[in-house]
Amino acid sequence: MGALLVVGSVALDSVKTPFGEVTEVLGGSATYFSTAASYFTTVRLIAVVGEDFPEAHVKFLKSRGIDLTGLERRPGQTFRWKGAYTHQLNEAQTLDTRLNVFETFRPNIPDSYRAPELLFLGNIDPELQLSVLEQVKRPSLVACDTMNFWIERKPEALWRVLEQVDVLIINDGEARALGRNPNLVQVAKEVLSRGVKHLIIKRGEYGVLMFNQKQMFGAPAFPLEAVLDPTGAGDTFAGGFMGYLSSTGNLSEESFRRAVVFGSVMASFTVEGFSLDRLRALDYKEIEARFQEFKRLTHFEDIR
Amino acid sequence: MGALLVVGSVALDSVKTPFGEVTEVLGGSATYFSTAASYFTTVRLIAVVGEDFPEAHVKFLKSRGIDLTGLERRPGQTFRWKGAYTHQLNEAQTLDTRLNVFETFRPNIPDSYRAPELLFLGNIDPELQLSVLEQVKRPSLVACDTMNFWIERKPEALWRVLEQVDVLIINDGEARALGRNPNLVQVAKEVLSRGVKHLIIKRGEYGVLMFNQKQMFGAPAFPLEAVLDPTGAGDTFAGGFMGYLSSTGNLSEESFRRAVVFGSVMASFTVEGFSLDRLRALDYKEIEARFQEFKRLTHFEDIR
C-alpha cells in the first residue's frame, strides 16, 4: 500500500519521572507516531517547528526514512511541553505548555502529499483536522486522535471530523468524556452509531480495547519490568497500528487486530526509555520477537 | 479430580451502586467462590454463620451441590458488610463492617474434608490459614487470597502461608503492598522467588495477569454493557479458576490459562447482577458460550 500521512505536533519535551529527568528532548505526537510507523512503511509528516529546532532531530527523522517535505520551519520557538509523573506512571501532570509556533499552525499539504493511502489526524483543533481532510483525496483509511480540550470546547467540529473518519484512537478518559458515560461498551455503541467505524480505546498500562459494529477486541499491555517514561506511548501505539496497516494493505478485522498488537508492541518499547531513546535504537527483529512474546502472553487453547 | 475445599466468609451484604441498592443479601468471599466453582466441581465449604442466617440461603447453596458439613452455625449474628460504589465501580467504599460470629471463627475441618484435591484459603487471618494447612493432607494444589490488612499487620505469618501455597490470587493494590513496589513484574519476581509458584493479579475491569517462573499470561476483563454491582467479582474469579482446575485435574500451564479465562467468565456474570442474582441463574451453556466469546475477544493471528 502507499504512503501514510500524519499531521500533528513536533515538540521539545522536559520530563521528570521517578526514574530520571530529561530537558528539551525530542517529543511531540507526530514524532512518536512517525518514528513508530517508520519501521513498517513510508511516512509523510506535516508539522511545524521553530528556528531553534535542533538539526540533529531533523537528521534523525530523515534517517528513519520519514518524508519531511511537510515539516514547516517558522520564525519563533518550537512547541515545548513540560510534565512529571509519579510512581504509578498513569497520568502526566503538565507543568508547562508553550505552544509557540504550534499555536498558529495551519496544516498546508504539499502537492506530493495529496493522495495518501492512509491518513492519521493527530490531536489538533478539529477545524484543522477538517481542513486537512479537505486538502487530500479521500484515503483508504482515515484515523484520528483528539483530547478532552476539544471534546469540551469544539464538540460540533469534532463530530464533523468523526463522521468522516474510519478509526478513532483515544484514551479511556477521553472516551468517557466524548460519550458522557463511564461505561466503555455504551460509549462505543454511541460513537459507532454516529459514523466512526472502529473505536480504539487506549488504557495505558492496562492495554487496549477495539470496537466495531460486529466485534470487540481486547489486548493487555505488555507487562514490563522497567518503565522509565510513559510519554508518547499512545502516539507510538497509533504509529505502530497505522504503520502496520499501511505495510500490509489489508484492512480486514484480522489485520486490524494484528495492527493493535503491533501498536502495543511499539508502545512497550517507547516506555522503556526517555524520549525516543528506545524507539530509535530498535531493530525490526526485536519488534517481531516481541510480537511473538505478545502472542505467548495472550494465547490460550480453546475448550473445543 | 477430587473435591475442592474452600475456607472463607459467608456474609450478609448491603450494597449501593449507581444502579441500585440491596440490603442484607447473600454475600461473602466463600459464598461467591463456592457458587462459581459449583458449576465445575464438588465444593466443600468451611465457614461460619450466625443464628440469623436465612434458611433460604442454606437451601440455595445445597441446591448448587455444595457440601455444607463444614458450615458452622453459631450463637450470634452473621458477618455483615455494607459498602457503596461510585460511577467508576472500581473500588468499594466500606461503610460498615460487623464481623459478628466471623470475629472468633476458627476453621475446624470435618473428617470428611481432610483429603481435598484442591484447597482455597480465602482471605482470613494468615494464622488461621496455617491452621487449615495443618489440618489437611497436602492437596495437589493450594491457592490463597489475602488483603492489605494482613499484609500490614501479620506479614510474617502471611509469608509462612505463602511458602506453602502454589497460587496466590490477589488484586493489584494488594500485590503492590505485598511487594512494596509499584511495578507488578518486579513484584512477581519477588513473590515467586519466595516460594509461590503462580501469582495471579486481579485488576478489576482491566483483567488479570498471571506470572510463574517461566511465563506471563494476560487477559482483559470481558467488556460489559451493564455492570450493576462489582461485589464478589474477585472471589468469583477465584472460584471459576479453582473450579475449572478441579474439574479437569490438569495442572499444566495451558490448563492454568484456561482456568484464568473461566474465572474471568464467571466474574463477568457476577457483576451483571447484585449479590449472586446472575450467578445463581446461570446455565453451563452460557458459561461455555461466554468462554467462546472471550476467545473471540482476545484472539489474533500470528504473523508467521
Oligomer: homodimer
**CATH H-tier superfamily of chain A:** Ribokinase
Number of domains of chain A: 1
The greatest inter-chain interface is formed by: A-B, 42 and 41 residues
Shape of chain A: globular
Strands of the widest sheet of chain A, in order across it, are: 5-4-1-8-9-10-11-12-13
**Average pLDDT for all residues of chain A:** 96
The low-pLDDT segments of chain A are none
Strand percentage of chain A lies at: 15-25%
Order of helices and strands of chain A: EEEHEHEEEEHEHHEHHEEEHHHH
CATH class of chain A: Alpha Beta
- Give the distance, in angstroms, between the N- and C-terminal Cα atoms of chain A: 38 Å
Q: Key terms for this structure?
A:
alpha/beta, homodimer, UDP-N-acetylmuramoyl-L-alanine:D-glutamate ligase, 304 residues, 4-stranded mixed beta sheet, 11 helices
Detailed description of the structure:
The structure is a homodimer of 304-residue chains. Chain A has one domain (4-298): Ribokinase (UDP-N-acetylmuramoyl-L-alanine:D-glutamate ligase). Helix content of chain A is 37%, strand content 24%. The first copy, chain A, contains eleven helices and 13 strands. The mean pLDDT of chain A is 96. The longest helix of chain A is centred in the C-terminal third of the chain and has 18 residues, at 253-270. Chain A has 304 residues and is an alpha/beta fold. In chain A, the strands form two sheets. Chain A has a nine-stranded mixed beta sheet, sandwiched between helices. In chain A, strands 3-2-6-7 form a four-stranded mixed beta sheet. Chain A has helices at 29-37, 55-63, 126-135, 148-153, 155-162, 172-179, 184-193, 233-248, 253-270, 277-280, 284-298; strands at 4-7, 11-17, 20-27, 43-50, 67-74, 80-84, 93-98, 118-121, 141-144, 167-171, 198-202, 208-211, 216-219. Chain A binds chain B through residues 87-89, 182-186, 189, 203, 206-207, 209, 215-220, 223-227, 254, 257-258, 260-261, 288, 291-292, 295-304, and chain B through 87-89, 182-186, 189, 203, 206-207, 209, 215-220, 223-227, 254, 257-258, 260-261, 288, 291-292, 295-303.
